[in-house]
Design brief:
Blueprint (H helix, E strand, L loop, with lengths): L4 E12 L2 E12 L3 E5 L6 H8 L7 E6 L2 E2 L5 H8 L2 E4 L11 H12 L5 H14 L15 H13 L5 E5 L7 H18 L2 E5 L3 H7 L2 E6 L2 E6 L1 H5 L4 H7 L1
Helix pairs in contact: 3-5, 4-5, 5-6, 6-7
Length: 244
Protein backbone atom coordinates (compact mmCIF):
# COMPACT_ATOMS: atom_id res chain seq x y z
CA UNK A 1 0.00 0.00 0.00
CA UNK A 2 1.43 3.39 -1.09
CA UNK A 3 -0.38 5.52 1.50
CA UNK A 4 1.55 6.14 4.68
CA UNK A 5 0.40 4.77 8.04
CA UNK A 6 -1.24 7.30 10.36
CA UNK A 7 -1.55 4.72 13.17
CA UNK A 8 1.16 2.07 13.73
CA UNK A 9 0.72 -0.57 16.42
CA UNK A 10 3.47 -3.09 17.12
CA UNK A 11 3.36 -6.08 19.50
CA UNK A 12 0.73 -4.42 21.72
CA UNK A 13 0.01 -6.17 25.02
CA UNK A 14 -2.61 -5.26 27.64
CA UNK A 15 -3.76 -7.20 30.69
CA UNK A 16 -6.12 -6.48 33.56
CA UNK A 17 -4.83 -8.40 36.55
CA UNK A 18 -4.39 -12.00 35.40
CA UNK A 19 -6.63 -11.54 32.37
CA UNK A 20 -4.67 -11.03 29.15
CA UNK A 21 -6.84 -9.06 26.73
CA UNK A 22 -4.31 -8.12 24.04
CA UNK A 23 -1.45 -10.61 23.84
CA UNK A 24 0.37 -9.46 20.69
CA UNK A 25 -1.40 -7.08 18.29
CA UNK A 26 0.33 -5.41 15.34
CA UNK A 27 -1.56 -3.38 12.74
CA UNK A 28 -1.39 -0.22 10.64
CA UNK A 29 -4.11 2.25 9.68
CA UNK A 30 -3.27 3.97 6.41
CA UNK A 31 -4.11 7.47 5.24
CA UNK A 32 -7.66 7.75 3.91
CA UNK A 33 -8.80 4.18 4.62
CA UNK A 34 -11.59 2.66 6.70
CA UNK A 35 -10.20 -0.28 8.68
CA UNK A 36 -12.83 -2.50 10.31
CA UNK A 37 -11.78 -4.50 13.38
CA UNK A 38 -13.95 -7.56 14.01
CA UNK A 39 -13.99 -9.95 16.93
CA UNK A 40 -16.21 -11.58 19.52
CA UNK A 41 -17.09 -9.75 22.74
CA UNK A 42 -14.05 -9.71 25.00
CA UNK A 43 -11.56 -10.04 22.13
CA UNK A 44 -10.02 -6.67 23.03
CA UNK A 45 -11.49 -4.45 20.29
CA UNK A 46 -12.47 -1.55 22.55
CA UNK A 47 -9.29 -1.90 24.62
CA UNK A 48 -7.31 -1.52 21.39
CA UNK A 49 -8.81 1.86 20.46
CA UNK A 50 -8.55 3.12 24.05
CA UNK A 51 -4.82 2.39 23.87
CA UNK A 52 -4.63 4.40 20.62
CA UNK A 53 -5.95 7.57 22.30
CA UNK A 54 -4.09 6.96 25.56
CA UNK A 55 -7.21 6.31 27.66
CA UNK A 56 -5.50 3.03 28.57
CA UNK A 57 -1.75 2.55 28.79
CA UNK A 58 -0.31 -0.50 27.04
CA UNK A 59 1.74 -2.96 29.13
CA UNK A 60 4.18 -3.54 26.24
CA UNK A 61 4.59 -2.76 22.57
CA UNK A 62 4.24 0.59 20.81
CA UNK A 63 1.37 2.76 19.61
CA UNK A 64 2.24 5.57 17.20
CA UNK A 65 -0.24 8.13 15.86
CA UNK A 66 1.18 10.50 13.23
CA UNK A 67 4.60 9.12 14.25
CA UNK A 68 4.07 10.20 17.89
CA UNK A 69 4.59 7.43 20.44
CA UNK A 70 1.37 7.71 22.46
CA UNK A 71 2.86 5.92 25.49
CA UNK A 72 5.71 8.45 25.74
CA UNK A 73 3.66 11.68 25.42
CA UNK A 74 3.17 13.94 28.42
CA UNK A 75 -0.32 15.09 29.32
CA UNK A 76 -0.14 18.34 27.31
CA UNK A 77 1.12 16.69 24.10
CA UNK A 78 -1.36 13.82 24.45
CA UNK A 79 -4.11 16.44 24.68
CA UNK A 80 -2.86 18.11 21.49
CA UNK A 81 -2.72 14.76 19.68
CA UNK A 82 -6.28 13.90 20.77
CA UNK A 83 -7.50 17.06 19.06
CA UNK A 84 -6.71 15.35 15.73
CA UNK A 85 -8.66 12.21 16.71
CA UNK A 86 -12.43 11.87 16.69
CA UNK A 87 -13.83 9.21 19.04
CA UNK A 88 -17.45 8.10 18.60
CA UNK A 89 -18.36 6.22 21.77
CA UNK A 90 -20.86 3.38 21.80
CA UNK A 91 -23.20 5.40 24.06
CA UNK A 92 -23.04 8.60 22.00
CA UNK A 93 -22.22 10.52 25.21
CA UNK A 94 -24.12 13.77 24.53
CA UNK A 95 -24.56 16.34 27.30
CA UNK A 96 -28.25 15.99 28.21
CA UNK A 97 -28.51 19.46 29.75
CA UNK A 98 -27.31 21.17 26.52
CA UNK A 99 -29.13 21.78 23.25
CA UNK A 100 -27.74 20.22 20.07
CA UNK A 101 -26.13 23.57 19.19
CA UNK A 102 -24.48 23.82 22.63
CA UNK A 103 -23.25 20.22 22.37
CA UNK A 104 -21.51 21.11 19.10
CA UNK A 105 -20.22 24.47 20.33
CA UNK A 106 -18.52 22.85 23.32
CA UNK A 107 -15.64 21.11 21.43
CA UNK A 108 -15.35 24.01 18.95
CA UNK A 109 -14.77 26.57 21.73
CA UNK A 110 -12.18 24.27 23.31
CA UNK A 111 -10.25 23.22 20.19
CA UNK A 112 -10.84 25.93 17.55
CA UNK A 113 -10.59 28.96 19.81
CA UNK A 114 -9.81 31.41 16.97
CA UNK A 115 -13.18 30.99 15.20
CA UNK A 116 -15.58 33.93 15.28
CA UNK A 117 -19.18 33.32 16.38
CA UNK A 118 -20.28 33.55 12.74
CA UNK A 119 -17.66 30.98 11.64
CA UNK A 120 -18.63 28.72 14.54
CA UNK A 121 -22.33 28.87 13.59
CA UNK A 122 -21.48 28.15 9.93
CA UNK A 123 -19.40 25.10 10.93
CA UNK A 124 -22.19 23.77 13.18
CA UNK A 125 -24.78 24.21 10.40
CA UNK A 126 -22.47 22.49 7.91
CA UNK A 127 -21.96 19.34 9.99
CA UNK A 128 -25.65 19.13 10.93
CA UNK A 129 -26.49 19.37 7.23
CA UNK A 130 -23.97 16.58 6.54
CA UNK A 131 -25.61 14.22 9.05
CA UNK A 132 -29.11 15.15 7.81
CA UNK A 133 -30.26 16.96 10.96
CA UNK A 134 -30.10 20.66 10.10
CA UNK A 135 -33.47 21.21 11.83
CA UNK A 136 -32.32 19.75 15.19
CA UNK A 137 -30.20 22.79 16.16
CA UNK A 138 -32.24 23.90 19.18
CA UNK A 139 -33.52 20.49 20.32
CA UNK A 140 -32.46 18.76 23.53
CA UNK A 141 -30.96 15.25 23.34
CA UNK A 142 -34.05 13.89 25.15
CA UNK A 143 -36.17 14.95 22.16
CA UNK A 144 -34.11 12.83 19.75
CA UNK A 145 -34.40 9.16 18.81
CA UNK A 146 -31.45 6.78 19.32
CA UNK A 147 -30.43 7.09 15.68
CA UNK A 148 -30.65 10.90 15.78
CA UNK A 149 -28.54 11.03 18.94
CA UNK A 150 -25.91 8.90 17.20
CA UNK A 151 -25.92 11.30 14.23
CA UNK A 152 -25.53 14.32 16.52
CA UNK A 153 -22.68 12.54 18.31
CA UNK A 154 -21.04 12.02 14.93
CA UNK A 155 -21.60 15.69 14.04
CA UNK A 156 -20.01 16.74 17.33
CA UNK A 157 -17.01 14.52 16.58
CA UNK A 158 -16.42 15.83 13.04
CA UNK A 159 -17.11 19.51 13.83
CA UNK A 160 -13.44 20.00 14.84
CA UNK A 161 -12.11 18.38 11.61
CA UNK A 162 -10.36 15.30 13.05
CA UNK A 163 -7.85 13.49 10.85
CA UNK A 164 -8.45 10.08 12.41
CA UNK A 165 -11.86 8.70 13.43
CA UNK A 166 -12.34 5.87 15.92
CA UNK A 167 -15.81 4.30 15.95
CA UNK A 168 -16.69 1.99 18.85
CA UNK A 169 -19.65 -0.22 17.83
CA UNK A 170 -21.38 2.64 15.94
CA UNK A 171 -24.56 0.67 15.12
CA UNK A 172 -25.13 -1.10 18.46
CA UNK A 173 -28.72 -0.81 19.71
CA UNK A 174 -30.05 0.66 16.46
CA UNK A 175 -32.73 -0.82 14.20
CA UNK A 176 -31.56 -2.20 10.81
CA UNK A 177 -32.67 0.86 8.79
CA UNK A 178 -30.94 3.32 11.13
CA UNK A 179 -27.84 1.06 11.26
CA UNK A 180 -27.62 1.26 7.46
CA UNK A 181 -27.95 5.06 7.62
CA UNK A 182 -25.10 5.32 10.17
CA UNK A 183 -22.93 3.00 8.05
CA UNK A 184 -23.57 5.22 5.01
CA UNK A 185 -22.67 8.30 7.08
CA UNK A 186 -19.34 6.73 8.10
CA UNK A 187 -18.47 6.28 4.42
CA UNK A 188 -19.63 9.84 3.59
CA UNK A 189 -17.50 11.28 6.42
CA UNK A 190 -14.48 9.39 5.05
CA UNK A 191 -15.00 10.95 1.61
CA UNK A 192 -15.99 14.48 2.67
CA UNK A 193 -13.49 14.98 5.47
CA UNK A 194 -10.69 12.74 4.11
CA UNK A 195 -10.52 10.87 7.41
CA UNK A 196 -8.69 7.65 8.23
CA UNK A 197 -10.92 5.49 10.42
CA UNK A 198 -10.88 2.42 12.64
CA UNK A 199 -14.36 0.94 13.01
CA UNK A 200 -14.87 -1.54 15.84
CA UNK A 201 -17.94 -3.63 15.14
CA UNK A 202 -19.52 -7.06 15.25
CA UNK A 203 -22.23 -5.88 12.80
CA UNK A 204 -21.26 -7.64 9.57
CA UNK A 205 -23.56 -5.44 7.47
CA UNK A 206 -21.83 -2.32 8.84
CA UNK A 207 -18.44 -3.95 8.20
CA UNK A 208 -19.36 -4.70 4.57
CA UNK A 209 -20.69 -1.20 4.04
CA UNK A 210 -17.71 0.69 5.46
CA UNK A 211 -14.54 -1.42 5.17
CA UNK A 212 -11.67 -0.91 2.76
CA UNK A 213 -9.78 -3.51 4.80
CA UNK A 214 -10.64 -5.82 7.73
CA UNK A 215 -8.86 -7.34 10.68
CA UNK A 216 -10.21 -10.12 12.90
CA UNK A 217 -9.03 -10.29 16.51
CA UNK A 218 -9.11 -13.59 18.35
CA UNK A 219 -7.50 -14.52 21.69
CA UNK A 220 -5.78 -11.15 21.87
CA UNK A 221 -4.05 -11.42 18.48
CA UNK A 222 -4.69 -10.54 14.85
CA UNK A 223 -6.23 -13.75 13.53
CA UNK A 224 -6.76 -12.59 9.94
CA UNK A 225 -6.19 -9.46 7.89
CA UNK A 226 -7.36 -8.69 4.35
CA UNK A 227 -9.91 -7.14 2.01
CA UNK A 228 -13.64 -7.73 2.67
CA UNK A 229 -13.70 -10.29 -0.19
CA UNK A 230 -10.92 -12.31 1.50
CA UNK A 231 -13.15 -12.67 4.56
CA UNK A 232 -16.28 -13.46 2.55
CA UNK A 233 -14.47 -16.20 0.63
CA UNK A 234 -12.63 -17.68 3.61
CA UNK A 235 -13.29 -21.32 4.50
CA UNK A 236 -11.85 -20.86 8.02
CA UNK A 237 -14.50 -21.97 10.58
CA UNK A 238 -14.02 -18.91 12.85
CA UNK A 239 -14.34 -16.48 9.92
CA UNK A 240 -17.32 -18.42 8.53
CA UNK A 241 -19.08 -18.21 11.92
CA UNK A 242 -19.02 -14.40 11.57
CA UNK A 243 -20.02 -14.21 7.93
CA UNK A 244 -22.79 -16.81 7.81
Amino acid sequence: MNAKPVVEIKNLKKSFGNQEVLTDVSLNLYEGENLVVLGKSGSGKSVLIKCIVGLLRADAGSVKVFENDVTALNRKNLGLLRQKIGFLFQSGALYDSMTVKQNLEFPLRRIKKDLSEKERDAKINEVLENVGLADALHKMPSQLSGGMRKRISLARTIVVDPMVMLYDEPTTGLDPVTSDEISSLITEVQKKYKTSSIIITHDIKCAHHTANRMIMLSKGEVYMEGKPKDFENSTDPLIRSFFM
